[in-house]
Amino acid sequence: MVDLLRGQARHEEEPRDLAERQERLVRAMAHDDAEAVVRLLAGLGEADRRALSRPVLAARQSRLVGRSATTAALLGTLPGLREVRREFAWGRVDPAAADAVATVLRDRAPRWLDGLAEALAGGQASPTENFLFLRRLVRAGVLAVPDVPEYVLGMVGGLLDVDRAAAPEGALESAVRSDPGLIEGELWTLLHTERSGRFLSNHDAWAARGVEGPRGLYPARPDLAWLHVILALVADGTYRRDAVLDVAVEASLRDWAAVDIPWFVQLHDALAPTVDELAERQGRYGALLAAPAGASVHLGLRSLSTLLDAGRLDVDALLSGARATLLRQEKGTVERALRLLAAAATAHPEHAGAVASVVATATEHPRADVRELVGRLLTRLGSTPPDGVEPFAAGGITVAVHGGPPRREPAAAVVPVADADELAELLAHLIEEADDPAEVERALEGLARLAGHRPRVGADALARRAARQSASTIVGGWADVRRPLAIGAVYWLAPPPATPMPITDAASLQARRRQPHVMAGSPPEDARPRTLPAMISGRWWEVMGHMIKGGGPMLALPTTTDGRLSLDALLSRLDGLGPGVGGQPFDMVQAFLRLSPEDRRSLVDRIGPDALRGARADGGLAALATLGDLQPRWRRHCADSRAPWGGVAAGVVTWSDEAAYRGTLQPLSSVLDRSAVWETAGYEVREGEGSARPEQAMALWTLVLPHEPDLLASHAHPALHAALETSKTGTGPVLLAIGASARPLGAPSCSALLLGLAARAGTARAIAADAVVDAATGGVLDGRVLGNELGALLRDGHVRPARLVAGLREAARGAGAAASVVLDALVAALPEAPGRRETASYLELLGDLATAAGRQVTMPAELAAAPRSSAVGRAVRRIPSTG
Amino acid sequence: MSPDVCPPGASDLTYPRGVEAMEQVYRYRRASSVETVEGRPDVRLATSGGWTPEGLADHPRFFDGFLGHAEQAAAALLAVARVARTRFFVPPGMLAAILRAADPVVTSNGDRLRFESFSACCGVYVRLDLLPGALDGPALGTGTTNVDMNPPMRQALAAIVGDQALHLAVGEDVTVTTADAAVTEARVPLPERWLKGFAEVQGAGASMRPVLQASAAEARRFLRALPRGSGGRAPVLWAASAGNGLRLTARPDRAGGTVCLAGPERLRFLEPLLRFASGLRAYAPATAEPSRPAASIWELQLADARVSVTLSPEVSRGFSGEGGVLRDLADDTGARDADLVSAVLAFEPRIDVVRLAEETGMSPDRVLTALGRLGAAGRVGFDAHESAWFHRELPYDGAALDAMHPRLRDARALAGAGAVRPVDDAYVVRSGGDAEYLVHLGPAGSRCTCPWYGKHRGDRGPCKHVLAAELVRRG
Question: ipTM value of the model?
């Protein structure tokens, strides 16, 4: 091709100089004239190519270029692999460009050619994108078959260069057969390449079931499955059957991730090996029993079971790996292995002793059913558990029941920042990580009080950094505490805005939003009303406005890190405000909420509601007096709720307060108006999404309501609902605050703890278990109330009972008091237990706890009547019961 | 080892200034292999460059004998190899980058073999110690080298079952190698932070004390129940004792009875080894603030072997930036002490500090400081179970490792340029143009108003401004 093109070039005038060559090259790119590009680059030295790379890149960035010509121009001029990686990081290289590129690369012979495949197949784009292009370069003899796994992995989805839905019958098989070398080369390598299992599995899942695509439903196309292709190659003898069977078995044995195994197991099963074939490989099936992946173990068990049925089992092969299987956690797998061992001992009584020795391994299994089965088998085999095998009595809870309660750390004192230097240092930390809500409160109070002061050094540097941080796209949304802190630092340290504004002046708000650093903020109007974020945003904006007006002391700084404020401290601060100085509404409400209810009443008694009404900024603050006498009447709801973008959040549990404050005064309504919570719950479920630090935002919630755990729990329910399905909701601080409450927990708090135990993220469940332990050891958690909520959640069916039961087990292991509370809860919710998939594990936990506590349980008739041979029946029998 | 000499494997390192990765060239005489010989597994590990007491060697030979507990040994070697090719944390924006694993490092200390590897994310370090009881005799020699763990070999290791002895050769006799055997060569770019973390992780171990112990059954229950994925921003958890077992908690014990377990899913690679476990022990730093995330060591006890896993304090945080040794490195007398101590090391399995103090004429404290410094340069490792250092020289460029402390380099530049001035009770450090930062030096911990300190506070060693102020104060 080069010669031909050079021949053509002789008929054209050679460019006079590099500038003309550049101009013609760019023009050729614009017309997608790959042949011209090839001609113009032919025979150039590296220096000229480097010189041309810049205009080529510029032309490419203009996007007014054709694909083949551009690809050829780029690969003919880019100086090295780094540049190639950068330019081809995300895009697919058109296979049609391969001929031109092959000519260019053959002519150029760059030093980095060996790394081209890795650069194109292993970049940010899917390996699938560039397989065909690379394959054509291989076939053109420009590249050796690349020795990077991404190349062959890319073949799985990249070999067919047509719309799959429109591909002719058997197109994948045809593509394989029509490419010489592919069957012996890339395809065979693929079957030995790590991660191939997940690629093949994903591809074949689409082929089997179809998939929803941008242009509608792509129909199922079983003929386009790789499994189909491999079987066809075996069927006509292209691949040796025994070799493919070996591949399937050995892949299951490899040190690969579990996700890569099932496709090979499917291949194995599709080959339907005969008993002779199984027998030839039974050593490897025995080894599969010790493999990490469950799918491998199941393949081993099935194959050995078939051999046993056929009278061909080598018991040693079974015993070699079975001990490892019996140490697995999955109940079904272990029971299956035990049954196979029992059958092997029956068929081969001479091995009964060895089988018994292996069976005893499962004595420590966490499920009582398995332990019971082991006991029966050992008895049948004439054996007892050998010494040294540790029994797993009562699911590991026995000792924990008698363990002492963990220490509850008293909250530390909150000390106001001393001076501007300390405030600068504090802000320097908080705009990076606002990981301590009490520190955030110190900063807020410091900003207001020290508005007129400056740190000794570093003010400009901090202001610049804060301005950058406030505008950063990484720091975003009201749910990221770092942004308002950064804005606060800018307000404090940068020249003040030209027009100070009252916080309630909407026009001023709009004006301020035009300032870049304020654009990033979130005024309270942006937050959903009647939510804690609205309260928190309001306080922040209030402080900003206060700073602009010169600042001054604030009231609400808590005296301890758990958010509580002492009456003495508040009285002292009120005195410090001086006569006639109005307090800030959000600040005032927050200060009141941080007083204990008793102190709220005392304060109102001492200064009188009239004093509040007369002296403070908003007459409606008289309503604060009502905070001393909150008597919520909680009502539970479980319903679908309207969500953003026309979506629906299904089965959101919410708690309304039928005695709630229903005024319109924003600081109070944000916190107290729980009258129609279901209306916004669907939106609140989605609020934490997109926040980089949701846990830091929710940690602030705990300091808004340090004395009302149920009210806090009511606010947190949408986030807890979200945590059932997503890992990133930041509910941990709220759960821990509920658990640390000194006041008895009502139904909303119990419901919150249970939702936490059922969270998707294991870390969130561990935190919820901590909260249950804390509340139980603190004596504020009533097992019956917890049980009522447990029953309600089971009845609703929107949580996963398996997670709940596992979470309750973890909580019970944490402390004796927690075990007792969990036992009470399980007993109270027992009427809701029957008829569920997890009923047996629920009853196992109940049995473990009741046995450890020496307590009799009255069984509902439905459970008492469960067949004795069923898992539920066996679990019922193990519960000390009176019914 | 004199600082201007590199081991053979590292002699081909290209490490231009300003480039954040160096290329390690592994040259193996042949690929490692596993075969069955006379019914026994025969594991032959090829070696590439390394140190012996006699000096540098292209293909050192350390062991040729039998290992007990074949299945366990094979599974443990696979676990070490798995860590080397795992990225436990993928930073946002890094989606499908190809992972080129560095080969594990093996050290022969005469009576035991140690296999080490370090994860691609720089947050997980694992070491398999094959103890004297596992070897049928002493090693042929002592030293450190890389070993090849290629995919076919891993496949063969995974298929080993049974408890019979396994034949192991680490390196091979040159005379039995066929003349036409081709040298296999692999070039692996090793990021600076990976190399630095691999070396510095030893310093984290040196401050550890055992805190929790669990039986085999509890170890299995605890490790198998660990959350599967927590992500980079998940809350840090701790392990606490619960009855006769362990449980996860979000509340660290201020009295030090809990062990930080950040990213608990990072321990799940131990699952295939649990069936051999006889116990689990967890270590936490003796001096760290108990409520702050900290590094931890998880030691799985096996028959005549131990697997120790060191986890970084947070999933998104590697060991390279921990800065635990910066103050030691800033002390020039420490460099001389380290040279003196290194001269008398001889690949001991357990370095006797008292003996070293006698031999070098230094106090034991100075010897320990010198060992910490050597650890940061990749020249000694720390065995938390033995609570002792052991000698091994990482087969990478020691001089390059020594230079990988940009904070210290910058601090010296600031101090040298007169950018530090005392004010009242503090220091003002001018850095990065006209930015000024206030530094407070104090016995309870130094503080700075710079962004780095603002983000990490005291958790990752001193910032360059604090170091510079300390250098100026020291004079």
Answer: 0.85
